[in-house]
C-alpha cells in the first residue's frame, strides 16, 4: 500500500483564541490586512472586535459574503485587496466566507477574472497572500482544506476548485464563535461534518492517517450533534463539534469527498437546499449502497462506534437526521420529471468516481425518484 500525507496549515484550537490574532499577524509579518466576513458579523459588532484584536493591522473590510458565494463577491474582495495593497487576509465566517476569502487571497496575486479559473483551475496561481481562517460554523473544514467552493449564478454553476495554494496559512478555531449559530444551521453544518468523515473513510483514496481522523470525527458527531442542536449554549457540545469539524476536514483533504457531496451541488443550485442539508439528504442512502458491497471496513467502523453493522449505523444516521430536523426527502419540492433528470445529470461530478461502488445514472434516478 502506498500513501502520502501532508498538512501545511498551522492550527490554533481553543475557546477565546481569536484574541491571539494580533500576535499571529505579527508572526506572519503582516502590515496591511483585509477582513472578509458576512453581513451578520458586521451587524453583531465583530468587525470592530477583529480590527482591535488585529492591533489595527486590518485596514480594509469586505462584509458582504453570502451563503454559496458568487464569483462577483470574490471579484469585489480582489478589487479591495488590490486597492489597499493588502499583504494578508483574515476570513471570519462559515464555509462561504472562508471559501470566498481563500479564492480572493490567491487570485488577487494574478490578473485573470475569477470566471477564468472556474473554467480552468489549472490557471490558478501557485502562491497567494497569507490567509488566517477563522471558522464560525462547525462544518466545512474549509479552514484547513485545499478546496474553495464558488458559484457562478449567471451560469448556474457551483463547483469546488482545489489546489494546494488554497491552504490557509493559519486556522484559528475558537468554538465560542459557534455559540450563536442557529439550530437549523447547527444541524446542517454538523451533518456536513459527518458526510466529510464518512465519504473520506470510504473514498477509493482512503489512507490510514485520514481514516483515524474520520473515525474520531464520526464518533464525535454521533455523540454531540443532538446536544449542540438542542442546547445551543452548551459549550462542551460546541467544542466537540468544532473538534469534529477540524478532524473531518483533515480526514477528507487527501481522500476527497464523493457521493453525497457530488449530489449536494445540484441540490443546492437547483433547489436552494443549504449545503450540509443537501449532503445529509443522501448520506444514509449511500451508506446502505456501500454497505451492500463492504470489504469489511464499514462494518469495522460501525463496530468501533458501537453499532452491530454498517446498516445499523445507517439507521442511526437516519434517526439523527429526524431528531435534528434535517429534511428526510424531496417531497416538499413536488419535482417534475425534468427536475429529477437535471439532478441526475448534474450529480455526475468527477468526485462521484471516488465512491467505492460505481454510482450509475440509473442508481441516481432511482434514488431521486424514491425521494420525490
Ligand atoms: P455558511 O458559511 O453558508 O453559513 C450559513 C449561515 O450561517 C450564513 O447565513 C452565515 O452568515 C451564518 N453564520 C455563520 N456563522 C455564524 C455564527 N457563528 N453565528 C450566527 N450565524 C452564523 O455555511 P457553512 O455550512 O459553514 O458553509 C457552506 C459553504 O461551504 C458552501 O458553499 C459549501 O459548498 C462550502 N464547503 C466548502 C468546503 C471546503 O473545503 N472549502 C467543504 C464543505 C463545504
Hetero groups in this structure are: nicotinamide-adenine-dinucleotide
Under CATH at level 1, the class of the largest domain stands as Mainly Alpha
Q: Please, how many domains?
A: 2
- State the distance separating the first and last CA atoms: 42 Å
Round the Cα radius of gyration to an integer and report it. Answer: 20 Å
- The helical percent reads 40-55%
Low-confidence stretches: none
Taken in chain order, the helices and strands follow as EHEHHEHEHHEEEEHHHHHHHHH
User: Which fold name is given in CATH as the topology of the largest domain?
Assistant: Dehydroquinate synthase-like, alpha domain
> Spatial order of the strands in the main sheet?
1-8-5-4-2-3
At the fourth level of CATH, the homologous superfamily of the largest domain is Dehydroquinate synthase-like - alpha domain
Number of strands: 8
CATH architecture of the largest domain: Up-down Bundle
Number of helices: 15
What percentage of the residues does DSSP assign to strands (E)? 5-15%
The biggest sheet amounts to: 6 strands, parallel
Mean pLDDT: 97
Estimate the global geometry from the Cα principal axes. globular
Structural class, from helix and strand content?
A: alpha/beta
Compile the SSE list and pairings.
Blueprint: E1 10-13, H1 21-28, E2 33-36, H2 39-43, H3 46-53, E3 58-62, H4 71-84, E4 88-93, H5 95-107, H6 114-119, E5 131-135, E6 147-152, E7 157-162, E8 170-173, H7 183-202, H8 208-230, H9 235-253, H10 259-271, H11 275-292, H12 297-304, H13 310-324, H14 337-346, H15 361-371
Parallel strand pairs: 1-8, 2-3, 2-4, 4-5, 5-8
Antiparallel strand pairs: 6-7
Helix pairs in contact: 4-5, 7-8, 7-9, 7-11, 8-9, 8-13, 10-11, 10-14, 11-13, 12-13, 14-15
Bound molecules: nicotinamide-adenine-dinucleotide.
Nicotinamide-adenine-dinucleotide is lined by residues 38, 40, 67-68, 93-97, 99, 136-137, 139-142, 145, 147-149, 177-178, 180-181, 185, 189, 192, 275-276.
Amino acid at each position: 500500500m502506498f500513501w502520502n500525507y501532508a498538512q501545511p496549515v498551522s492550527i490554533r484550537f481553543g475557546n477565546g483564541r481569536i484574541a491571539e490574532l494580533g500576535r499571529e499577524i505579527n508572526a506572519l509579518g503582516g502590515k496591511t490586512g483585509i477582513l472578509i466576513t458576512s453581513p451578520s458579523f458586521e451587524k453583531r459588532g465583530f468587525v470592530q472586535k477583529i480590527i482591535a484584536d488585529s492591533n489595527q493591522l486590518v485596514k480594509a473590510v469586505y462584509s458582504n459574503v453570502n451563503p454559496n458565494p458568487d464569483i462577483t463577491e470574490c471579484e469585489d474582495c480582489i478589487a479591495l485587496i488590490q486597492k489597499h495593497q493588502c499583504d494578508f487576509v483574515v476570513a471570519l465566517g462559515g464555509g462561504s466566507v472562508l471559501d470566498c476569502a481563500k479564492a480572493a487571497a490567491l487570485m488577487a496575486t494574478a490578473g485573470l477574472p475569477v470566471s477564468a479559473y472556474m473554467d480552468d483551475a489549472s490557471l490558478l496561481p501557485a502562491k497567494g497572500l497569507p490567509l488566517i481562517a477563522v471558522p464560525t460554523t462547525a462544518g466545512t473544514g474549509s479552514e484547513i482544506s485545499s478546496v474553495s467552493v464558488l458559484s457562478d449564478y449567471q451560469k448556474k454553476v457551483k463547483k469546488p476548485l482545489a489546489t494546494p495554494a488554497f491552504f490557509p496559512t493559519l486556522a484559528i478555531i475558537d468554538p465560542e464563535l459557534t455559540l450563536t449559530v442557529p439550530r437549523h444551521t447547527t444541524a446542517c453544518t454538523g451533518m456536513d461534518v459527518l458526510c466529510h468523515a464518512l465519504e473520506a473513510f470510504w473514498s477509493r483514496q482512503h489512507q490510514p492517517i485520514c481514516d483515524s481522523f474520520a473515525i474520531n470525527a464520526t464518533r464525535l458527531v454521533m455523540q454531540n450533534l443532538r446536544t449542540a442542536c438542542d442546547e445551543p449554549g452548551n459549550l462542551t457540545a460546541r467544542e466537540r463539534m468544532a473538534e469534529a469539524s477540524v478532524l473531518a476536514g483533515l480526514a477528507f483533504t487527501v481522500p476527497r469527498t464523493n457521493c453525497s457531496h457530488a449530489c449536494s451541488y445540484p441540490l443546492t443550485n437547483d433547489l436552494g437546499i443549504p449545503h450540509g442539508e443537501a449532503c445529509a439528504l443522501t448520506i444514509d442512502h449511500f451508506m446502505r449502497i456501500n454497505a451492500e458491497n463492504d470489504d469489511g471496513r464499514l462494518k469495522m467502523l460501525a463496530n468501533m462506534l458501537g453499532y452491530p453493522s454498517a446498516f445499523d449505523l445507517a439507521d442511526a444516521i437516519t434517526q439523527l437526521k429526524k431528531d435534528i430536523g434535517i429534511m428526510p426527502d424531496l417531497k416538499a419540492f413536488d419535482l417534475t420529471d425534468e427536475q429529477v433528470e437535471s439532478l441526475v445529470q448534474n450529480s455526475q461530478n468527477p468526485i462521484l468516481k471516488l465512491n467505492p461502488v460505481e454510482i450509475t445514472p440509473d442508481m441516481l434516478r432511482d434514488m431521486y425518484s424514491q425521494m420525490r
